[in-house]
Amino acid sequence: MSNQLASAFYMSTYSGASRSQGYCRYRECCNARLHRRRPAAELCRDRVARACVLKQPLVISAEMPHHFFSPAAMSQKKINVRESLRSSFKDGIFAAVMAGITDQYVTPLALFLGATVQQVGLITALPNLLSSLSQLLAVRVIHWVGGRLKLLMRLVFSQASLILFIAILPWIETSWRVELLSILLILTATCGGLAGPAWGSLITEYIPSSKRGRYFGWRNRTVGAVTLGSIIASGLILYSFREISYSAGFCALFCLAALARFTSGYFIKQMDEPPHRRDPASDFTFVMFVARFRESNFLKFVLFSASLTFATYLSAPFFAVFMLRDLQFSYLTYMGLQVCSSFASLVALPLWGRHADLVGNVGVLRLSSFLAALIPVLWLFSHDPAYLMLVQIWSGFAWSGVTLSAANFIYDAVTPQKRVRCIAYFNVINGVALFLGSFLGGFLASRIPPLFGYSLLSLFAFSCACRLFFYLLLSRSFHEVRPAREASIHELFFSVVGVRPLVGRSQD
Q1: Which among 349, 357, 362 is positioned nearest to 401, based on CA atoms?
Q2: CATH class name, domain 77-496
Q3: What is the pTM of this model?
């Protein structure tokens, strides 16, 4: 501890008194309190004052609180939760614009650049795998950079810059365009992956656990509306370039995505970071995390989520391929189908959020994941765009419940000190499952016998069977972690669809 810091602390504690008067006051206070035990922080203040008055070196002992001289304790910066949530909301708006473009139009871009079905599978699998593995370093990188907000800022601006490079790929005349796209997507996804645990840990410290379901339901609904608008606008932009050049259309889309991401980074910069004290109990390795499987309720939830992710991504990357390549839908029709899914998610989110607050996140997760497991088989019955719009509405309704309840369960089940690390490990395991599912799906897509004339339909049926198998095997292996009302899956379903509402009833 430097003399300047000790002097500053002394002046703030004994302002308006001379050095000798300050020390006399120090002795009088000590003598008056000899009969009672003094807290460590009080001992620390007296020691600093004495060292300053007598010009002695300051000795820091084990009895001083470890956080006493931390920057957060010394500056005592006030955290404006309301303004931080507003800035986070604005960040989410512009991040949704980016997501509406990058999530829905990367596969059409890959097909435009000449990607095969196997390459589409790898374009989905590899970025998610490496993004997930990078999260093993999330906690270390946060401490190395110096805070969650600092890390978020750097990652968001890096991600925006990489999307700009993707925007110029349609103009590059080379046989390696698909491979370049894969590399850029890997780097972009890695930035997003590292940002996930930091953002999740930060945002949950602003919101009490009792209000998270309703808050995230409202937030995701609003952000989803922006995503919906982004998908529609992007489809119309791409369609308007059909007589000019699709290269120019894709370039315009991804430039818009990069601009939106830069803007979201500006709003992240306006947020405040609550003090984040390290807990020695939170410093556990990935092996230690996995080794607790038998007694850990959270790990059983992770296994269920990873199994569902694996089964889902056997088919998920190939619905766009089926629509654009096999069914020869236009970009406008493709956009319309994606909009149906996003719109259904938008409408369903507040319903799922209210029910999650009432009956718990596990009940909502069990119902919504069962509905999501049935989605691939619905593609077997008809390929009429009007029918597929209904299937997409079902999909958006189901997956909005899965994503909302799974995220809120993590926030409820993990303490704030362990949250960054547990979110990172959760994403690692899910990312590996996603990679394995996408890779296996791409391998089977051209080798599996066709069903109703299409090999991808056989893959969809196989994915549905795997989803139902893992659901029946693992959905009852974990339990709710906070007080919640008891409700069967049938009661919850009829309440969500409005037939026999649970929300608003007396809980007696």
Answers
A1: 349
A2: mainly alpha
A3: 0.69
